[in-house]
Amino acid sequence: MSFVDVYRNRKNNALEVNQNEIFCVLKKKMFYCFLKFYEKSFEALFLQATGEYYREEGNRLIAKLDCIQYMKKVIENKIKKIYFFNLFISIQISLLIDDEEFRSRKFLNSTSYKKVHKECLQCLVCDHFDTLKSECNELIIKEDLDGI
After folding, report:
1. Shortest CA distance to 115 belongs to which of 23, 38, 19?
2. CA nearest to 110, candidates 123, 101, 119, 118
3. Is 28 part of any domain?
4. Residues 37-66 pLDDT 10s
5. HSE toward the beta carbon, residue 57, CA cutoff 13 A
6. What is the residue range of 75's domain?
7. Within-domain flag for 44
8. What's the per-residue H, E or C state across 122-138?
9. Could you tell me the pTM of the whole model?
10. How many domains, the chain?
């Protein structure tokens, strides 16, 4: 509905209803309702489960690996060659986080992508910040510039 429609209604007391506009408004409201339902009933639980999984995975890896190996496992980019449309293409991937982003894009609504990425970063990097920082300080003291 536009200002012109309102003006016509005031003058003629007749309102032209555009069925396409009504359909679009209803469609937007339905999508909004669906999105809120999705966020409350599925996404919140999914993000919680994702956080728990990567918190455990991060704890397991930080106990097993040193700082450099941990960061390589979590966020370092690697070159991977894939076969795509009869060509070999080199792409960069980070190990754990990109794997989870791929899963997000495969299974989740697009509104969840950034939330999942943020949850993974929180659990794999931010939660271990003090440990990583102290180990990096040791590398600086040892002057291990390759490790840094």
Report:
1. 38
2. 101
3. no
4. 999 999 999 999 999 999 998 899 889 888
5. 20
6. 39-141
7. yes
8. HHHCHHHHHHHHHHHHH
9. 0.63
10. 1
